[in-house]
From TrEMBL:
<comment type="similarity">
    <text>Belongs to the FldB/FldC dehydratase alpha/beta subunit family.</text>
</comment>
<dbReference type="InterPro" id="IPR010327">
    <property type="entry name" value="FldB/FldC_alpha/beta"/>
</dbReference>
<dbReference type="GO" id="GO:0016836">
    <property type="term" value="F:hydro-lyase activity"/>
</dbReference>
<protein>
    <submittedName>
        <fullName>2-hydroxyglutaryl-CoA dehydratase, D-component</fullName>
    </submittedName>
</protein>
<dbReference type="Pfam" id="PF06050">
    <property type="entry name" value="HGD-D"/>
</dbReference>
Length: 402
C-alpha cells in the first residue's frame, strides 16, 4: 500500500498497525484504542452503560468528569469521521464563512447529524476559539445542553496576589462545572484525588516511553507517538486499557534491539501544533528519514498531590505551558529542541485558524534567528489525504536537513 493511495485517517491507522508496526502488539493496541474511541463511547452511551459528555481533548474538565463518573468524549476526534458533507452542513445550513477553521466546521457538521440522538451534553471553552463560541450558541439552539467554561490564561510574570486571584477564579469555574455535570457543587474529593494520582502515574510512564524513543526512534514512528500524547489526556475513554498499553509499550522498548546504522541516519524533529487528521504528513516525515521526537505537548508538570485536589487541579493548569501567552510555549519548544538535539521544527495548524497562524509565524521567526529551520504547514480537519504539494514540501524539508 502506497501512502498516496490512502484516503482516510482510519486507513492510515490500519496501515501503521499492519505494515509499519506489525512487530509491536502494544502499538497496535494503542492505535485500536484511538480508532474505536468515539464509536465505542457513543455505543456504550446509547446502551445505557455509561454517562458521557463531549469535551476538549485536553483540559482540566477531563479528570473532573472522570471523578464524577462521566466519560469525556473528545469532539476533536470526530474529525476522522468527517468529510465534505460535514463541512457543507456548517457552511450552508449554519452559514459559516468558507474561510472558517475546518476543525470547527467539521465538529458542527457532526453534531448536526447527531441532533436528537446520542450524547447531548457539551463542555465548551469560551475565549480559546472565537468560531467555537459561535458553535456553542448554535448547538444550544439545536437542543444540546452546553456549558461554556472560561479559559484562564496566565500572562508572563504574573505571580503573587494576581496569581492567587486567577487560582480562585479557576477554582470557582471547577465548582460551577461540577454542578453542571452532576447537579451539585459538591465534588467527591477522594475520587478527584484518585484521578490526579492516576494522571501523575501515567505522565511518568509517557515520559519514560518518550525517553526510550530517543534511543530507538524508529521502533515507534510518528503517528502512534502523537496519539500516545493524545491518549494521556482522555485515555480514549478507557483508562485501564490505556495504562496497560503504556506498560506493555515500555516493556517492548526496553528490550527492542537498536540498529546503530539507522540511529546514525535519523533526523530528530520537534512537532509543534495540533494533532492533524492528515496522517499522511506523519508517514511522509518518517519515509524521508525524519522522526518526531520532541513535542509541544510534552508532559513536563505533575499535579501537586500534597494540595487539596481541587486546588491541585487549578494550580496545575496555571503552572503549565498551556496557561499563558505563546511565549510560554516558546520556552517549551526550546527545551524540546535541546533535549532531542533536533535539527528542525514542524509547525502545523488548521486552515482558517488565525490565532494559530499568528503564533506559528512568531515561533518560526524566533527560532529562525536562533538557527533552527522550520516548515509551517496548514491542513484540513476533514477526512482526506494531504495534498501532493504538502507531501512534497515535507519531503524536501526533511531531506534538506539531512
Amino acid at each position: 500500500m502506497d501512502i498516496e493511495d490512502i484516503q482516510s485517517p482510519r486507513d492510515y491507522l490500519i496501515y501503521s498497525k499492519t505494515q509499519v508496526h506489525p512487530y509491536s502488539p502494544a502499538i497496535g493496541k494503542l492505535l485500536d484504542l484511538s480508532a474505536a474511541y468515539v464509536q465505542d463511547a457513543e455505543q456504550a452511551y446509547a446502551q445505557g452503560q455509561i454517562n458521557a459528555v463531549w469535551s476538549r481533548a485536553t483540559g482540566w474538565e477531563i479528570p473532573l468528569a472522570y471523578a464524577s463518573g462521566i466519560i469525556p468524549v473528545a469532539y476533536s476526534e470526530m474529525g476522522r469521521l468527517s468529510d465534505m458533507e460535514s463541512v457543507t452542513i456548517a457552511e450552508d445550513y449554519y452559514q459559516f464563512p468558507q474561510e472558517t477553521c475546518s476543525m470547527v466546521k467539521c465538529t458542527v457538521g457532526q453534531w448536526h447529524k447527531r441532533r436528537g440522538a446520542g450524547i447531548k451534553r457539551i463542555i465548551g471553552a469560551s475565549v480559546a476559539c472565537e468560531p467555537y463560541n459561535l458553535a456553542w450558541e448554535l448547538m444550544k439552539k439545536e437542543g444540546y445542553d452546553v456549558h461554556a467554561i472560561d479559559v484562564v490564561y496566565r500572562a508572563p510574570g504574573v505571580k503573587g496576589e494576581r496569581l492567587e486571584q486567577l487560582v480562585q477564579f479557576l477554582i470557582e469555574q471547577i465548582y460551577e462545572t461540577a454542578e453542571w455535570l452532576t447537579g451539585s457543587r459538591e465534588i467527591n474529593e477522594e475520587k478527584l484525588r484518585t484521578e490526579i494520582q492516576r494522571k501523575n502515574r501515567l505522565i511518568v510512564k509517557v515520559r519514560k516511553i518518550l525517553e526510550l524513543r530517543i534511543k530507538n526512534p524508529y521502533y515507534m514512528r510518528s503517528l502512534p507517538s502523537i496519539y500516545l500524547l493524545t491518549g494521556l489526556n482522555t485515555y480514549f475513554g478507557k483508562p485501564a486499557a490505556y495504562e496497560a498499553v503504556l506498560d506493555e509499550l515500555i516493556a517492548e522498548l526496553e528490550t527492542a534491539p537498536v540498529s546503530k546504522s539507522e540511529l546514525a541516519k535519523v533526523i530528530p524533529l520537534v512537532w509543534v501544533g495540533s494533532a492533524g487528521q492528515e496522517f499522511g504528513i506523519y508517514e511522509a516525515i518518517d519515509q524521508a528519514g525524519g522522526a518526531l521526537l520532541g513535542f509541544r505537548g510534552y508532559p513536563f508538570n505533575n499535579y501537586d498531590e500534597t494540595l487539596p485536589p481541587v486546588e491541585a487541579l487549578a494550580r496545575h493548569v496555571l503552572g503549565n505551558q498551556e496557561a499563558g501567552a505563546s511565549i510560554y510555549v516558546q520556552k517549551v519548544i526550546e527545551q524540546e529542541l535541546k533535549k532531542v538535539k533536533a535539527r528542525g521544527l514542524v509547525l502545523y495548524g488548521y486552515l482558517g485558524c488565525s490565532y494559530g497562524s499568528v503564533a506559528r509565524e512568531m515561533w518560526r521567526d524566533y527560532f529562525h534567528k536562533k538557527g533552527f529551520p522550520s516548515i509551517n504547514l496548514e491542513g484540513t480537519f476533514q477526512v482526506g489525504p494531504p495534498t501532493g504539494q504538502i507531501l512534497t514540501r515535507i519531503r524536501a524539508f526533511v531531506e534538506m536537513l539531512a
